[in-house]
Amino acid sequence: MFILPLVLWMASTNICLAQYFINRPNHNLQEFKFPSENKELPIVFEWKNIQYGFPSEQEREQVLRNGRYNPDSPIPIDIDVYYPRNGGPARHFVTTPRFGQGVPYSLAYVTNVQGRNGSEIQAYPSYQWHSSHGANCDGLTSVYRVHIDPCGRMWVLDSGEIEFVQHCAPQVVVFDLATDQLVHRYRLPETSYKAKVSRFVNILVDTRDPPPKGQCNDVFAYLADPTSKAIVVYDVAGQSSWRIENKFTYPDAKFGTHTVAGESFELLDGPLALAVTPLGLGMRRHLIFHALSNELELAIPLDILNNATNWQSGLSASLSEFVSLGRRGVQCASHAMSRRGILFCGFLEPIGIFGWDIRTPYNRQSVQLLALNPDTLQFVSGMKIVQRPADGREELWLLSDRLQKIFAGTIDYREINYRVLRCDVDDLLQGRGCF
């Protein structure tokens, strides 16, 4: 008596997967030649421990005394890079969320000043934006990740909590990087998060009218809330947000143990990695995502996701629209999408960077190893594709943080623990090496 429902479910699954490839274009670009040898990625910055800068030596001494700065507390999570349109030097931004006390600020830029632990960072946009530690909700409480859009704006995701104490509502804060001025703020309503449970850790911004022809006004942002197992959609023009939580946003207990370089930790996190089908590929556009504690790579059409009326029935809403693209057999943390539809991801085992052309099936034959280094690529928590305005070429930027050692309590601050790495995307895909 279960045969008919099973047949219907299989038919529905096949239809959804087929719909993912609707209008899939013929390859009219040069075919990528994946390297037969593993390539390492050059290191741009590295730290034994994060080297904070302060407005004055007096301020540094004060926060050390009152516990608002513990040099062993901060953990860098994310990286993003801004190339000014006027051709000035690149600006490198890192985040150090307030998982607990002792983090003086959670969003910073890397300076040219060298300290004994590595390059010094300074608070962005200013120290005052962070100094209240959650007492002033017009500032920044705890920033996990950021996204710099094609219009030169940095979208900042502030979880509003420290150690799951919700000091402020989660918020999206936007800065114009040409002026470093605040240009937009959106505080999530209580319907979009679960106080004392939610921890927003990732933001992806889809600018559907980018320059040079667009006006940067048609924008949706997608927010990952892995601790309450949900994705929040923010319609910027409509100034509204809605929450998606269902069986596809949940972790898999079989992948709750995360092992990196022989050390393991337990974590049952929901959605973390977010990417969208690039404009101009001729495909139906999807949000491609996965939970940290899961092997599944999933997709949901943007035209379904971006319509709030499709999500009014809770856990059962629009389930038939989700597409299971495939299984990795291992966890992958952050991922990033190139404009040509190559999805990069940092696998936990083997410890390397893999690439997948989204116009092909998601399987072991299509997901190819691009870079391998069991030392420098331990837990890639931050990953971005950045386009250089000078020549239009894309770069892959990574931040690795040896998170397994932090969970295990085995981190040694006499060693290099945190690294920022980069490679030209085409060089990496063609196997030419990174320079």
Strand and helix map with partners:
Blueprint: H1 3-20, E1 43-47, E2 51-52, H2 57-66, E3 78-82, E4 91-95, E5 107-114, E6 119-123, E7 143-148, E8 153-158, E9 161-162, E10 165-166, E11 171-176, E12 181-187, E13 202-207, E14 219-225, E15 230-235, E16 240-244, E17 257-260, E18 263-266, E19 271-276, E20 286-291, E21 296-301, H3 302-305, E22 323-327, E23 332-337, E24 342-347, E25 352-357, E26 368-372, E27 380-387, E28 394-400, H4 403-408, E29 418-424, H5 425-430
Parallel strand pairs: 2-6
Antiparallel strand pairs: 1-29, 3-4, 4-5, 5-6, 7-8, 8-11, 9-10, 11-12, 13-14, 14-15, 15-16, 17-18, 19-20, 20-21, 21-22, 23-24, 24-25, 25-26, 27-28, 28-29
Summarize the structure.
This protein has five helices and 29 strands.
What does it look like?
This protein is mostly beta strands. It is built from five helices and 29 strands. It has helices at 3-20, 57-66, 302-305, 403-408, 425-430; strands at 43-47, 51-52, 78-82, 91-95, 107-114, 119-123, 143-148, 153-158, 161-162, 165-166, 171-176, 181-187, 202-207, 219-225, 230-235, 240-244, 257-260, 263-266, 271-276, 286-291, 296-301, 323-327, 332-337, 342-347, 352-357, 368-372, 380-387, 394-400, 418-424. A five-stranded mixed beta sheet has the order 2-6-5-4-3, with no helix packed on it. A four-stranded antiparallel beta sheet has the order 1-29-28-27. It is globular. The protein starts with a helix and ends in a 5-residue tail after the last helix. Residues 1-15 and 23-36 have low confidence and may be disordered.
